[in-house]
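Why does residue order matter? Because the sequence determines the fold. Keep that principle in mind as you read this record.
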Amino acid sequence: MSNFPTIRLVTLQCAIEDVNEHPRPFVVVNTGCHTTEYIEFPSQIFAMLPDGFTGDLLVVPTTLGGLHGVGIPLGRHREQFLAGEFVLVFADVLHKIQERAHGGQTVGDLEERARDGLWVTMTLATERLRACLDLREHRKLNTETRRGEIFTRLEPYLAGFTAINTFREGQELIKKWYPGKTSYRTMKSAYMSVATLPGAKLGRVNLVDIEDEQVDLVRTAGSIYSKTLAFLAAQHEMSDMLRELEESAEFKNATGEEQHVMMAGLLREKGPAQHQTLAHDEQRSPSLIQLMRAANGMNFNPAWVFLNVRAYTSEFDCAMLLGCAERGIGATFEPEQIARLKRFMALGEATGERANANAEVQAARVLREQALRVKLQAGWDELFAANDGGSPWVTKAL
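Structure:
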């Protein structure tokens, strides 16, 4: 963003009223660590605001109890808030969604994308794991026998799908995900990407780390699919509650302000579990680095269902687009995405391999690694320098 928005210090109640009228992110900060007379605002928060942000940036000094009292969950950001860090809160308007039909159900777009991402991720991970095991045991076991061993290991992470069916569905999808290649060729490439690593046959590659990373990728993909189902179910349940309320005589006879109070009260009293699911007010969930890897492999943006990481929507978009480019599908990067990619690549490079790096820095390293599989650093530097705020088309450098 070229111009920073005006910062306005307000009470929590004022922020809620303002955001209800004009939905946009706002910032909360712990009054136990800062005084309202002097709050030093971190400029990096501006970089996390969505492109096209308008209006004042509301900064709310408050307490954990105050946030709980109005139903604003912090989830994994709770410790950051308690430590005095500034936490960006994204506000979403809950819309009624179409009532679900009875009988045969169709898979919605969001569920389908998460499911397909899980299937493809598991299929390719199986082939990389097969290469790891063949190398570690110094023998190339029968393909189906080896896959059977891997299926047993991965099935607990597949959100209820059987491993054999997931693998078969993934094989079919690979034809669409990798244009111009057969499933066999793509899967062989996945196997060879490990088997041909320099020094792999001589025991100079940490194959256990590669195995752990692939299993973790499948585990994360399964978690994202499960979360998608829970997210959609909570949406429908809350929408059904609102629809029932709006059809009542009491609601129809109320003023606009009274209706707003009635809806807020209904969701607060009868929908706390659904609200927790939608906002992802949970301490345990995939980390930012795990979600960044999954976005690239699944072609799915975790911020669509994990609203606690909404601040990184554009970075996840970049991971998805880089995954498309790596598969041979050109991708258009919007101006905000290019700006975020440039920032994260610089952040990932500047910090090197620092062991105590925070979650954002670790995720930046991952995104940079993904970008460098598409273009060399010099290629990205040239693209960033030449870009004048447009939407460049990115393909993998041959």
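Residues 207-246 form the longest helix (40 residues).
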